[in-house]
Amino acid sequence: MLALLFHGAVAVAAPAEDAATLVKRAIDYWRDTSSYSVADMTIRRPDWERTMTIRVWTRGQKESLVRVTAPPKDAGNATLLLDNEMWSFTPRINRVIKIPSSMMNQSWMGSDFSNNDLAKADELIEQYTHKLLGKESHDGHTVYVIESIPKETAPVVWGREVVKIRDDWLILEHAFYDQQNVLVKRLVTSDIRPMGGKLVAARERMQRVDRPGEWTEVVTREVRFGIPIAASTFTLSNLRNPRE
Question: Rounded CA gap, 123 and 131, in Å?
């Protein structure tokens, strides 16, 4: 989900090297019990570029709301995730549409993030098995390289994923491989800074390896964690008629 774009972390050393535990702790830290963030998403293509401002609310692992606030032609577009279901609202047609599973691999708002990328925070925990491949170093920290393989019955797109998690729970890289084990795209953190009482991945870029001139970059401008968020935020009514 876009909550996946806001990988927060605190400076606490990892107590164990169990791969599944590391993945869960990393996701728990950047999601926290709840969060609110504001970010600019820039989509670059060979012949055009556009930037959208987005606001994101999350509560636990199952509730997320992503709303576009600028520019005016995109403002009001929103996506709601509840458990394993997703809905979108488009002001232009004034309709709430449930996203079917057949559309989960389609692009979100024309970006390099798919609907599935927005929805998969808990999927990586529940639908995959994890293996520690090795360790690297980054700015004096240990970085755990973890391979995530989907379970046999998992309804997922990728053949495997490789995640690099720093020992303070910051996710530095997330690589996606197809069923033939070919690298398709990679999400890379390029700027880390304190925000909202934690270290956050303040700049992240998603890029397909076969399209070097195209990418989507997310720059987080504001984030708060562990804040009260009303249950009414994550409703179809609020998706269409925002009250937050």
Answer: 16
Name the residue with tokens 């997703």: 86
Question: Which is nearest to 62 in space by CA: 45, 83, 41, 38?
Answer: 83
pTM of the model: 0.88
CA dist 1 and 145 (Å) reads 22
3-state secondary structure 2-39: HHHHCCEECCCCCCCCCHHHHHHHHHHHHHCCEEEEEE
Amino acid identity at 106? Q
Could you give the CA distance from residue 182 to residue 101 in angstroms, rounded to a whole number? 23
Alpha-carbon distance of 228 to 185, in angstroms, equals 35
Rounded Cα gap, residues 210 and 194, in angstroms = 33
In 3D space, the residue among 21, 23, 25 whose CA is nearest the CA of residue 12 turns out to be 25
pLDDT in tens, 141-184: 999 999 999 999 888 889 999 999 999 999 999 999 999 999 99
The SS3 of residue 71 is coil
Give buried/exposed letters for 24-62 (b at 16+ CB in 10 A, else e).
Answer: bbbbebbbbebbbbebebebbeeeeeeebbbbbbbbebe
Q: Which helix (H) or strand (E) holds 238?
A: helix 236-240
User: Tokens representing 90?
Assistant: 């488009």
